[in-house]
């Protein structure tokens, strides 16, 4: 979860089309997810069940075979996959997790479905359909050549039918920092019911537009939807309970289609959306392929768009120091440049703590530098770079510059020196210096300190407690 969104989905190329920048989901051209391929995955789940006692239930061979098969498909497509095992009262179960190894890992968009069936049948609508649709979307994304902004991850959950065990196990075992990176979880459980409805989970916490994006997508395809409160009945529940934004679709289970619903969706009023729900007849014939086709395209639409959504944080509060490790107390962390410059050597005091950047002091012709990249918000009305500096020197001529340190800004290929201090500025008390960097607002630049010494008589430029602040 991240705070405010800020604008600017860059230009994205989709299937050769140059699309205008936008910060809203909906800017990316939606893919056509192949119903033929998705149906082939369902045939595979049916065949796995048929050759494993008629089901794909937790702890039975049909489940593990389903998980192995899904994982192998994703591996072949280039996903980084994990088979996560956990124990249940019915035996060992597995989650298959697949991550596309591109895009910003700090912003993760997930889609998932449960892969297990009940013990009484092959579980083709429940939930071969969600699994096949999410799998085909993952394979299509891998083949699409998209450049993802965010990190895309798919979850195929075990033991949903035993009480959402796989998804709960997954979220409970994610370190807090990893949970925090998940921006959205999309769930698909039963999406081709033979007498289908078009239900969208009503989950709608503030700031989660995914529900409304699903509705808008179906509306654009002339499919009317209804919101449904699915409570804790599927795997999004575990994510939602952590405060993660969730959304999902559902074509109905044991509930009865009303005549009003039959009028807008077709099918049979007074009959269950899925009369074979949790029964042995939930087999390869228990599908509405129109529902499947529409639903998988909705999955594709959501995945393509949310993968490009700009989840970056808004500008930092004014007054914050935008530099990391500004007093060097974490050693060289966050700084790049000449090795050994950042030191806790006791032969020169720090301004604060014990570490500082000690440039030069060699007494021979050398240069040394350290720098750090910083993004100066475009909203800044003032921006300054300040530092504390202590200069001691063995130079004795009181009027000639021999050794210098430059305070520089590197902006792409242009380096600008904003201040220069030399042996003439010697002062063994620390002095604070400030330069104006407002000219760089809206840019990511490198703040750099560059020391240069001539062939003899050392000058030490010791810098500490550096800050870039804006207002
Ligand atoms: N999770 C239920 C099952 O697998 C089906 C379901 C999905 C019910 C979504 C309500 C909403 O049996
Ligand atoms: Zn079920
Ligand atoms: Zn289900
Ligand atoms: Ca220090």
Walk me through the structure.
Residues 95-301 form the Peptidase M28 domain. Belongs to the peptidase M28 family. M28A subfamily. This is Aminopeptidase S. The chain has helices at residues 35-50, 61-77, 124-144, 165-172, 176-179, 210-220, 236-240, 259-265, 289-307, and strands at residues 12-14, 17-19, 80-88, 91-99, 104-114, 150-157, 182-188, 199-201, 226-228, 246-250, 336-337, 342-343, 356-360, 366-375, 383-393, 404-411, 414-422, 427-436, 444-453, 459-470. It has nine helices and 20 strands. It is elongated, with a radius of gyration of 30 Å. The protein has an eight-stranded mixed sheet, with helices on both faces. Strands 11-14-19-16-17 form a five-stranded antiparallel sheet, with no helix packed on it. 23% of the residues lie in helices and 30% in strands. The chain has 471 residues and is α+β, with helices and mostly antiparallel strands. The chain folds into two domains: 12-306, Aminopeptidase (3-Layer(aba) Sandwich); 336-470, Galactose-binding domain-like (Jelly Rolls, Sandwich). The model is unreliable at 1-26 (pLDDT under 50). Helix 2 (61-77) runs parallel beside helix 3, helix 3 packs across helix 9 and helix 6 crosses helix 9. The two termini are 26 Å apart. The relative contact order is 0.12. A hairpin with a 2-residue loop joins strand 16 (404-411) and strand 17. Bound molecules: phenylalanine, zinc ion (2 copies) and calcium ion. The site of one zinc ion has 4 residues, from loops.
């Amino acid at each position: 979860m991240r705070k405010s969104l800020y604008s600017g989905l860059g230009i994205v190329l989709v299937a050769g089309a140059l699309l205008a920048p936008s910060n809203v989901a909906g800017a990316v051209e939606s893919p056509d997810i192949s119903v033929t391929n998705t149906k082939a995955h369902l045939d595979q789940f049916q065949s796995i069940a048929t050759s494993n006692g008629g089901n794909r239930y937790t702890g039975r061979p049909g489940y593990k075979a389903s998980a192995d098969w899904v994982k192998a498909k994703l591996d072949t497509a280039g996903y980084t996959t994990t088979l996560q095992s956990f124990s249940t009262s019915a035996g060992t179960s597995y989650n298959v997790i697949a991550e596309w190894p591109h895009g910003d890992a700090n912003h993760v968009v997930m889609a998932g479905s449960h892969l297990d069936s009940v013990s009484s049948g092959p579980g083709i609508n429940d939930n071969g359909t969600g699994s096949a649709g999410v799998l085909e979307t993952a394979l299509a994304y891998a083949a699409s050549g998209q450049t993802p902004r965010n990190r895309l991850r798919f979850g195929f959950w075990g033991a949903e039918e035993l009480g959402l065990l796989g998804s709960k196990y997954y979220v409970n075992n994610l370190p807090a920092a990893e949970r925090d990176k998940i921006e959205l979880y999309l769930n698909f459980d039963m999406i081709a019911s033979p007498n289908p409805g078009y239900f969208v989970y009503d989950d709608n916490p503030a700031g989660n537009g995914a529900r409304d994006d699903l509705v808008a997508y179906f509306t654009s395809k002339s499919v009317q939807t209804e919101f449904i409160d699915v409570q804790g009945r599927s795997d999004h529940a575990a994510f939602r309970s952590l405060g993660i934004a969730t959304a999902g679709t559902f074509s109905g289970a044991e509930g009865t289609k009303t005549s009003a619903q039959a009028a807008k969706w077709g099918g049979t009023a007074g009959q269950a959306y899925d009369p074979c729900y949790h029964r042995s007849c939930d087999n390869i014939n228990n599908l509405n392929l129109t529902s499947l086709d529409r639903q998988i395209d909705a999955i594709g639409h959501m995945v393509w768009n949310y993968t490009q959504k700009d989840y970056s944080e808004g500008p930092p509060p004014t007054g914050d120091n935008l530099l990391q490790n500004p007093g060097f107390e974490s050693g060289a962390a966050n700084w790049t440049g000449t090795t050994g410059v950042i030191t806790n050597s006791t032969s020169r005091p720090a301004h604060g703590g014990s570490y500082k950047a000690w440039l030069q002091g060699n007494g021979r012709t050398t240069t040394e530098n350290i720098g750090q990249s910083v993004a100066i918000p475009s909203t800044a009305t003032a921006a300054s770079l300040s530092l504390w500096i202590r200069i001691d020197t063995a130079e004795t001529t009181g009027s000639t510059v021999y050794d210098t340190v430059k305070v520089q800004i590197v902006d792409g290929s242009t380096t600008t020196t904003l201040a220069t201090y030399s042996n003439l500025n010697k002062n063994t008390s620390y002095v604070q210096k400030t330069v104006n960097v407002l000219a760089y607002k809206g840019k990511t630049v490198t703040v750099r300190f560059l020391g240069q010494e001539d062939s003899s008589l050392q000058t030490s430029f010791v810098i500490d407690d550096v800050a870039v602040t804006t207002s």
